[in-house]
Write a structure and sequence with these properties.
By secondary structure, the chain is α/β, with parallel strands linked by helices. It has a single domain, classed as 3-Layer(aba) Sandwich (Rossmann fold). Helices cover 32% and strands 19% of the residues. It contains eleven helices and eight strands. Strand 7, helix 10 and strand 8 form a beta-alpha-beta unit. Helix 3 crosses helix 5.
């Protein structure tokens, strides 16, 4: 395995301008002559959750290892959180995507198979990126749009709507306490989906009390309206912040999530591989 930590402001002037603390942890499969000298792997840029107030360790390294073990490269982004406001974290996702593509040969990345994955508020960030990657908000990076294009989105119990069914803490941390209805609507996934939104994998639970399942349902409806391919999994039980949904990321080992929830990571990896033409 190749492991590196990359501070993105050292590579992108737009991030240096606001002294971005963002860094990218690289978990890439090692090259081996037994598998060919130039093997390329579908890869995932991971945005942990944390209500835009932190980035969760539980949705970082454990996710990277789960993906790596399923034949995927993983890049975990620790992005700016409150008091940083929109669009700083979005610019950091764009910088991370560009960095991965610019270094695809070094890390064995299949350049046309890079998905953005996000959990909870990180799901909002991933979804926001998937609906805004080709818009002016990312122009400060001075990167060609084709380097910014996500080939897929993976939205895990995401705060996808900033409307009535949202997680208010995430809204306040990203936009401040005085966010207008217009600002909230503009950053709601269901209102931002367009023809350029990539294929999307979503999962949620019916009993998520922190981020209602409607966030994923509204998103799926918007994707269907624009005929964007998507795969949606809604499970009957399970709380919020499940990560890999096993003892590995559960603090109380006497109160584990339902075992069937662990299936999401296999379904997700298979979706990424199919989307990359490898499944």
């Amino acid at each position: 395995m190749i492991y590196e930590r990359i501070y993105l402001k050292e590579h992108f002037a737009a991030l240096a301008e606001f002294d971005s603390p963002a860094y990218l942890d690289v978990y890439a499969p090692s090259q081996s002559p037994e598998l060919g000298d130039d093997r390329r792997y579908p890869s995932v840029l991971v945005c942990p959750g944390g209500g835009y107030g932190m980035t969760s360790d539980r949705e970082a390294e454990p996710i990277a290892f789960a993906l790596l073990g399923r034949g995927l490269g993983a890049f975990v982004l620790r992005y700016s959180v409150a008091p940083a406001r929109y669009p700083k974290a979005l610019l950091e996702v764009g910088a991370a995507m560009a960095y991965i593509r610019q270094n695809a040969e070094k890390y064995g990345v299949q350049e046309d198979a890079i998905s953005v994955m996000g959990f909870s508020a990180g799901g909002h960030l991933a979804g926001n990126y998937g609906t805004h990657w080709d818009r002016e908000v990312l122009d400060p990076l001075h990167v060609e749009k084709e380097f910014l294009r996500p080939n897929g989105l993976i939205l895990c119990y995401g705060v996808l709507s900033f409307g009535e069914m949202t997680h208010l803490g995430s809204v306040k941390n990203l936009l401040g306490p005085d966010a207008t209805e217009e600002q909230r609507k503009a950053l709601s996934f269901e209102h931002a989906v367009s023809e350029s939104t990539p294929p999307t994998f979503l999962w949620h639970t019916c009993t998520d009390k922190a981020v209602p399942v409607e966030n994923s349902l509204y998103a799926a409806e918007a994707l269907a309206k624009f005929q964007i391919p998507f795969e949606l999994h809604v499970y009957p039980e399970g709380g919020h912040g499940l990560s890999v949904a096993s003892w590995v990321t559960t603090r109380d080992e006497n109160n584990l999530p339902p075992k069937y929830l662990t299936k999401w990571i296999d379904d997700c990896a298979n979706w990424v591989l199919r989307n990359a033409g490898r499944g």
